[in-house]
Design brief:
The structure holds two protein chains of two kinds. By secondary structure, chain A is of the alpha/beta class. Chain A folds into two domains: 140 residues, 3-Layer(aba) Sandwich (Rossmann fold); 63 residues, no CATH class. Helix content of chain A is 32%, strand content 24%. Chain A is built from six helices and nine strands. Chain A has a five-stranded parallel sheet with strand order 6-7-8-3-9, with helices on both faces. In chain A, helix 3 crosses helix 4 and helix 4 runs parallel beside helix 5. By secondary structure, chain B is mostly helical. Chain B has one domain: MetI-like fold. Chain B is globular. Classes of the chains: A alpha/beta, B mainly alpha.
Chain lengths: 215, 549
């Protein structure tokens, strides 16, 4: 477990290369509750950077630098021990589980007792205005509902930092604004250092934080 | 894969040169070869194996690519896709029996003709066991078409065929010409290994040859089995050299085939660039459909006739249907049926479970190590399918005897595993690799351990694909004739060994029963693979996308 002190997510001179070519180089600190937007064309290594932070980057990539979360280095840690949550442009709700099952999947085993776990799931559904959805099949939900469930799922896993990989690009434009503010509000409320990669400038504007352009 | 195949080949190679201490062969020598070359009609058998294998493979490949070229993306194509998958699971022996019952002089087609021609006795023609082996070729072609078709189908998406077809059409090419000129060159490298496997199989087939093939003399592989089963143990040495000769024949067939590939490749490039459009290809298109339907129809109809024979009472020659039906034989054979099904399952269950576990382990390891296997790995997987069974099965038997495992369930399961693994791998690897890796990443980032991801995310998502792979594996073990017979040394009477053993007797009702029994288990397997996920995930609509395994 990271220490109790929340100091945010620090990327200390992180460089990612593939086949001798440098894809991306960043050096930045994201404060708790801050949302930093990383803009860049596709192929600029944005998603590789997120993969590196959450520990799922294939090892043919060459990486240098340090990733530090709340004062502790993440390098060499297994993804499941990092407490870094990630949201992709697809919601990736597990199709074989119910909505409630998806949320319970994310709950730590420290939350004991069936009733207790169920209560936490219901609570999360309530805060997403989806009360009573626990037994629904995720495939029967609308895109906006699925996006909210996906966020609630990440938050239930109690991450110490959040990564957003073009999370709104697949949503209809009228829905996009709504989901954006839902996600951003919860990031700030939970004090999560958040790194978003996108190629939609409006995402950056809506996030209201720093915007970094990758060449 | 290399282990058992090379152990088997060495175990065959040594006795071929007179070395097999267990039978008193100690010195290296050429005696077995001398004895082999003195066998009457040896070269005739060799020619039959080589020529018929090449013809059968070429005809199967030709029909499959022609049909794909002519009908890809149409309704009849999708219908074929549906029909051919279950046919793939029909063991070779059952399909061959069905075909025999259909085309024999007293078979169903002759009966149909007799209604109009007024025959009252079967025509005096050697249609089955014909000296040229045409019936055997027909049987092989009909049975290999589903396999090659499904392998081609798997390769199609990787070559962007739908859009290619649209482009060639707008450039003014006929369907078939456009497909042959633009798509086939991209597809063929992907189906080359399966094609070579078909070639190796057709050139060294035993069970189909016993049922449909020429008898005087028989193709080499059948004669080898005869020598191996001969009470005169001294013949084992000659049989070993013959098994090596069989391996050489298969290698020769492959060399001839690959030379043909080269020539067609060079000619094809010129042909592709000469601009001929072949716009009017209706005739060829319909022709290819007729051939494909004929081959499929023959197997289905043959199986129906197996079913009818198994419950037939008196059924005289020109009659289309028996005069009466009876379950008498089924009742008489009740115990024997139960025990042969039991033996079949006794081998199949451990084989399939081990195969699926090993394949899942390999694939999961591939995901965790995040590395993609190269082409060489595919050759390894296909190796047991490219080496003639009879050439290394005897050697494997020698090897098992050496380590004290002869005639045990363990050794039979291991021998089956050699052939089941490739098919299970082929069936499972595509869906496994097609699974969105971000599901796994998401689960890890939610705090699940790698094994948790495997058990709680990947396995459930792949339920249908895993069950299908198990059904494929089951169909393969049920259909194994040589490994069961040789490695089990006759101790394991499965539905397939029993059925092939009936071939010489000619009791059609018994053949009908055992032919059907061969299909019961594979069909049950595929039914489970369809039903279990449908029931398990009946409230999960999103699973249907993952259920196309």
């Amino acid at each position: 477990m990271p220490s109790g002190i929340k100091t945010g997510l620090e990327l200390r001179d992180v460089r990612i290369g593939l086949d001798g070519r440098e894809l991306v180089a960043v050096d930045l600190v994201i404060e708790p509750g801050e949302i930093v937007t990383l803009m860049g064309p596709s192929g600029s290594g944005k998603s590789s950077l997120l993969g590196h932070i959450c520990g799922t980057l294939p090892d043919q990539f060459k990486v240098a630098g340090q990733v530090i979360l709340d004062g502790q280095s993440l390098d060499g840690k297994a993804p499941q021990d990092r407490h870094v949550g990630i949201l992709f442009q697809d919601d990736l709700l597990f199709p074989h589980l119910s909505v409630g099952g998806n949320l319970a999947f994310a709950l730590s085993t420290n939350v004991r007792g069936k009733a207790n776990r169920r209560a936490r799931v219901e609570e999360a559904l309530m805060s997403a205005d989806l009360d009573g959805f626990a037994d629904r099949d995720p495939a029967t939900l609308s895109g906006g509902q699925r996006a909210r469930i996906a966020l609630m799922r990440v938050l239930l896993s109690e991450p110490c930092a959040l990564l957003l990989d073009e999370p709104f690009s697949k949503l209809d434009s009228d829905l996009r604004g709504q989901i954006r503010s839902f996600v951003f509000n919860l990031c700030r409320k939970n004090g999560l250092p958040t790194l978003m990669v996108t190629h939609d400038p409006e995402d950056g504007i809506a996030a209201g934080g720093r915007v970094i352009n990758l060449a | 894969m290399i282990g058992p195949v090379s152990a088997g080949l060495i175990g065959t190679l040594l006795p071929a040169f007179g070395i097999l201490p267990a039978l008193g062969g100690t010195g290296p020598g050429l005696d077995p070869w001398v004895a082999l070359f003195e066998q009457p009609g040896l070269w005739h058998s060799v020619r039959l194996s080589l020529v018929n294998g090449l013809i059968a493979s070429f005809v199967s490949v030709a029909i499959v690519v022609l049909f794909c070229a002519a009908w890809q993306g149409t309704r009849i194509f999708r219908v074929m896709q549906r029909i051919l998958s279950p046919i793939l699971s029909v063991p070779h022996a059952a399909a061959a029996f069905g075909l025999a019952f259909l085309i024999a002089p007293s078979g169903w087609i002759a009966r149909l003709v007799a209604q109009f021609a007024g025959w009252d006795r079967p025509p005096d023609l050697a249609i089955i066991h014909d000296p040229l082996g045409l019936a055997m070729i027909a049987g092989l072609v009909a049975k290999e078409i589903p396999f090659l078709f499904l392998m081609t189908l798997a390769a199609l998406p990787q070559a962007d065929t739908e859009r290619t077809a649209r482009i060639t059409a707008t450039l003014g090419y006929g369907r078939i010409a456009g497909w042959f000129k633009a798509t086939l060159p991209r597809i063929y490298p992907q189906i080359r290994l399966p094609v070579l496997a078909v070639l190796a199989y057709s050139t060294s087939v035993v069970d189909v040859a016993i049922i449909l093939g020429p008898t005087t003399p028989a193709p080499l592989a059948v004669r080898i089995l005869g020598w191996l089963s001969d009470p005169d143990l001294a013949l084992r040495f000659m049989a070993s050299s013959a098994a090596i000769l069989q391996l050489i024949i298969v290698l020769m067939a492959m060399v001839i085939w690959m030379t043909g590939e080269k020539i067609i490749g060079v000619m094809g490039r010129h042909w592709a660039e000469n601009g001929q459009r072949f716009k009017r290809d209706q005739g060829a298109r319909h022709g290819s459909a007729v051939l494909a339907i004929l081959a499929t129809g023959a197997i289905i109809l043959g199986l129906v006739i197996l079913l009818i024979w198994s419950v037939a009472g008196f059924w005289g020659f020109p009659e289309i249907l028996p005069r009466s039906f009876s379950l008498r034989l089924w009742q008489r054979e009740y115990d024997a049926i139960g025990s042969s099904l039991g033996t079949t399952l006794l081998i199949a269950v451990p084989t399939v479970i081990i195969a699926v576990a090993l394949v899942l382990g390999c694939l999961e390891n591939e995901v965790r190590q995040a590395h993609k296997p190269g082409r060489g790995v595919m050759w390894l997987i296909y190796l047991p399918l490219l080496v003639p069974q009879i050439s290394f099965m005897f050697g494997l038997q020698v090897f098992f005897t050496l380590i004290g495992l002869e005639r045990t369930l363990i050794s039979v399961v291991l021998a089956h595993l050699v052939f089941v693994l490739p098919y299970v791998f082929l069936s499972l690897s595509d869906p496994f690799r097609a699974l969105d890796p971000r599901y796994g990443q998401t689960a890890l980032c939610l705090g699940a351990s790698p094994s948790g991801v495997f058990w709680k995310v990947r396995l459930p998502l792949l339920t249908r694909a895993i069950l299908t792979a198990m059904a494929v594996g089951l169909a393969v073990t049920v259909g194994q004739y040589l490994p069961t017979l040789l490695i089990g040394a006759g101790r394991f009477a499965t539905v397939t060994t029993e059925a092939v053993a009936l071939a010489s007797g000619g009791d059609r009702r018994m053949i009908g029963i055992y032919g059907l029994l061969q299909m019961v288990l594979p069909f049950a397997g595929f039914a489970c693979a369809l039903l279990i996920p449908a029931i398990l995930f009946r409230h999960r609509r999103g699973m249907s996308a993952h259920n196309r395994g």
